[in-house]
C-alpha cells in the first residue's frame, strides 16, 4: 500500500536505549513517551541485549505505536569506538545470542575490576549499589558515572567519564569484543539488518578512517548507515549520505536516547530540527524482507 506524503514523513526514532541496558527509562516508558511526542515508531536498540523487546512490543500494541526490535553490538576496531545496529533479529538466533551473551558475561567480569580501580582512586562504589542503579538491566560505566556524580566524587556524569571511565582514563578496563565481521554475520544469521551506528561519532580523526571502515564492513555484509544522529552537523549528515549512495546502503537515523542519563537528547528530536522520517523505516523493512 502506497503511503501518503504525510504518512511517509511522520517522525520516528531508530536508536533508543532502555533500562534493559544503560538507559534509565523502561521499555514501556519509552513507548509511552514516544506516543506522547507524536512519533510513529521507535526501535529498541539496547547494548548487547534483546531483553527489552517483549515489553516494548507489547506496550506498543496497547497504545498504538510501532516498535522495531533491534540491538546495538559493540565490536573491536583499532582506534575507533564502533557499534553495529541490528534491526528485526529473530528471537534466540544462536550466533547472535552467543555473541551478546559473551559481551554481557565479559562486562560482568570487567565491572569488578573497574570498581576496584575506582576504590583505589578514592571513589568507592559497592557492587550492590551498581546493581541497584542498573535496576535489573545490564550494569555498566554509565551507571557507575551516575553514582559517582550523585555521591559527589565528580561534578557530573561527563566528568566521571573524562577523569575515570573513558577509554584511557584512570579506571578504564578494556573490553573483549567480537570483530565487526563476526557481528555482522551473526546479525545476518538472525535475519536482521546490520547498520553501522553513528559513523561520524566513533572518534575518527579523518574522514578517510570512516570511509576505510565502511568499505571493510560492506564487504562483510553491511546493509545500512545511520546518517541522522543527535549532534550531527549538516556536513556530517552529508558525509554519511554520500557513503550510503556510494555503496548502495540504507539510510537510518536515531537519537541514541538514554533518558536522563543523556539529558540533552529527547526522543525523535535533535538540533536544528532534526527529522527522521517514517519512509526510512519503510525502506528498512523492505531490506529485511529481502534477507
Overview of this structure, please?
There is one protein chain. With 291 residues, this protein is of the alpha/beta class. The chain has helices spanning 5-8, 27-36, 53-63, 94-120, 127-134, 141-150, 157-165, 180-189, 207-220, 234-247, 279-289; strands at residues 12-16, 41-44, 66-75, 82-87, 193-196, 224-229, 250-254. 44% of the residues lie in helices and 14% in strands. The protein has a seven-stranded mixed sheet with strand order 1-2-3-4-5-6-7. Strand 6 (224-229), helix 10 (234-247) and strand 7 form a beta-alpha-beta unit. Helix 4 (94-120) crosses helix 8. The longest helix has 27 residues, at 94-120.
What's the gist of this structure?
The chain is of the alpha/beta class. The protein has two domains: 5-100 and 176-289, Metal-dependent hydrolases (TIM Barrel, Alpha-Beta Barrel), CATH 3.20.20.140; 101-165, Orthogonal Bundle (DNA polymerase, domain 1).
Task: Please describe the structure with a list of short key phrases separated by commas or semicolons.
TIM Barrel, 2 domains, 291 residues, single chain, 7 strands, DNA polymerase, domain 1, alpha/beta, 7-stranded mixed β-sheet
At the third CATH level, what is the topology name of the largest domain?
A: TIM Barrel
Determine the structural class based on helices, strands and strand pairing.
Answer: alpha/beta
CATH architecture grouping of the largest domain: Alpha-Beta Barrel
The number of distinct β-strands equals 7
Largest sheet: 7 strands, mixed
CATH C-level category of the largest domain: Alpha Beta
Outline the low-pLDDT stretches: none
CATH homology-level superfamily of the largest domain:
Metal-dependent hydrolases
Q: How far apart are the termini?
A: 21 Å
Strand content: 5-15%
Helix-strand string: HEHEHEEHHHHHEHEHEH
Strand order in the largest sheet: 1-2-3-4-5-6-7
pLDDT averaged over residues: 94
- CA-based gyration radius: 18 Å
Q: Give the overall silhouette.
A: globular
Query: Counting H and I runs of at least 4 residues, what is the number of helices?
Result: 11
Integer count of domains: 2
Oligomer: single chain
- Helix content percent band: 40-55%
Amino acid at each position: 500500500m502506497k503511503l501518503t506524503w504525510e504518512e511517509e514523513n511522520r517522525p520516528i526514532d531508530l536508536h533508543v536505549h532502555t533500562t534493559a541496558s544503560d538507559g534509565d527509562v523502561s521499555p514501556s516508558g519509552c513507548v509511552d513517551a514516544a506516543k506522547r511526542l507524536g512519533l510513529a515508531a521507535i526501535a529498541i536498540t539496547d547494548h548487547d541485549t534483546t531483553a527489552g523487546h517483549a515489553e516494548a512490543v507489547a506496550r506498543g500494541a496497547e497504545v498504538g505505536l510501532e516498535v522495531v526490535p533491534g540491538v546495538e553490538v559493540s565490536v573491536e576496531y583499532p582506534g575507533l569506538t564502533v557499534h553495529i545496529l541490528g534491526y528485526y533479529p529473530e528471537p534466540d538466533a544462536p550466533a547472535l545470542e552467543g555473541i551478546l551473551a559473551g559481551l554481557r558475561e565479559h562486562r560482568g567480569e570487567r565491572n569488578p575490576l573497574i570498581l576496584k580501580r575506582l576504590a583505589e582512586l578514592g571513589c568507592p562504589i559497592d557492587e550492590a549499589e551498581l546493581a541497584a542503579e542498573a535496576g535489573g538491566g545490564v550494569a555498566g560505566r554509565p551507571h557507575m558515572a551516575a553514582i559517582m556524580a550523585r555521591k559527589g566524587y565528580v561534578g557530573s556524569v561527563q566528568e566521571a567519564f573524562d577523569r575515570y571511565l573513558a577509554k584511557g582514563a584512570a579506571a578504564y578496563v578494556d573490553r573483549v569484543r567480537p570483530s565487526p565481521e563476526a557481528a555482522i554475520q551473526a546479525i545476518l544469521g538472525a535475519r536482521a539488518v546490520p547498520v553501522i551506528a553513528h559513523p561520524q561519532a566513533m572518534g575518527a580523526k579523518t574522514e578517510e578512517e570512516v570511509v576505510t571502515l565502511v568499505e571493510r564492513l560492506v564487504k562483510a555484509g553491511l546493509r545500512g548507515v545511520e546518517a541522522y544522529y543527535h549532534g550531527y552537523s549538516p556536513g556530517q549528515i552529508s558525509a554519511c549520505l554520500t557513503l550510503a549512495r556510494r555503496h548502495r546502503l540504507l539510510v537510518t537515523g536515531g537519537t541514541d536516547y538514554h533518558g536522563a542519563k543523556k539529558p540533552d537528547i529527547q526522543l525523535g528530536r535533535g538540533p536544528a530540527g532534526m527529522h527522521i522520517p517514517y519512509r526510512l523505516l519503510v525502506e528498512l523493512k523492505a531490506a529485511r524482507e529481502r534477507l
